[in-house]
């Protein structure tokens, strides 16, 4: 179920039927302190800064950590913290952990840069993202300094939907 929706759960306790309304939440947020869920190499989320607006793209963003900045060839960008299902970002191939270094040839250094670039874009506008994708390591964590694990520079592009 999509995050934020309410699910009705029915339980039977000793023959007594009970109903509960449960709001679906992101397990990475609920269990952010449990390494069995988020992994040991996952950098802590920066909760002091809000994520960039995802109205047009369908992604969550945050600033790069110093380790992530060192892995990016341009030493700049923002990291994708989530890709919403059935969004523009999912349609063009974004993955959690991608580093966006430019949008429409404009350099990106912070989530604020993304907000400024996306603000004037209208439905039907062409958008090109320059993305650095770090190879996956063990158990879905990003590889750190693995031999032969070079970062791939990609261009993910598409036309903004009418919504």
Task: Tell me what the structure shows.
The strands form two sheets. Strands 3, 4, 5, 6, 7 and 8 form a six-stranded antiparallel beta sheet that branches. Strands 1-2 form a two-stranded antiparallel ribbon. It contains five helices and eight strands. It starts with 5 loop residues before the first strand and ends with a strand. It is of the alpha+beta class and 163 residues long. The chain has helices at 27-30, 35-38, 66-71, 88-92, 111-118, and strands at 6-13, 16-23, 59-63, 78-83, 99-103, 106-107, 126-133, 152-159. 17% of the residues lie in helices and 31% in strands.
Keywords, please?
two-stranded antiparallel sheet, single chain, alpha+beta, globular, 163 residues, six-stranded antiparallel β-sheet, Pdz3 Domain
Overall shape: globular
- H-E order: EEHHEHEHEEHEE
Outline the biggest β-sheet.
6 strands, antiparallel
How much β-strand is present in the residues?
25-35%
Question: What's this, in brief?
Answer:
By secondary structure, the protein is α+β, with helices and mostly antiparallel strands. 17% of the residues lie in helices and 31% in strands.
What is the topology?
Elements lengths: L5 E8 L2 E8 L3 H4 L4 H4 L20 E5 L2 H6 L6 E6 L4 H5 L6 E5 L2 E2 L3 H8 L7 E8 L18 E8 L4
Antiparallel strand pairs: 1-2, 3-4, 4-5, 5-6, 5-7, 7-8
């Amino acid at each position: 179920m999509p995050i934020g929706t309410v699910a009705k759960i029915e339980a039977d306790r000793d023959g007594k039927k009970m109903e509960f309304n449960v709001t679906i939440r992101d397990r990475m947020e609920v269990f952010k302190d449990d390494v069995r869920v988020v992994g040991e190499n996952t950098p802590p989320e920066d909760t002091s800064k809000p994520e960039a607006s995802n109205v047009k793209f369908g992604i969550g963003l945050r600033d790069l950590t110093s380790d992530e900045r060192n892995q990016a060839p341009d030493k700049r960008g923002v990291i994708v913290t989530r890709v919403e299902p059935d969004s523009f970002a999912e349609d063009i191939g974004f993955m959690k952990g991608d580093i966006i270094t430019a949008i429409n040839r404009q350099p990106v250094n912070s989530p604020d840069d993304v907000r400024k670039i996306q603000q004037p874009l209208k439905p039907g506008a062409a958008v090109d993202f320059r993305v650095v994708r770090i190879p996956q390591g063990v158990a879905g964590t990003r590889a750190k300094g693995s031999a032969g694990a070079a970062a791939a520079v990609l261009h993910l592009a598409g036309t903004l939907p009418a919504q």
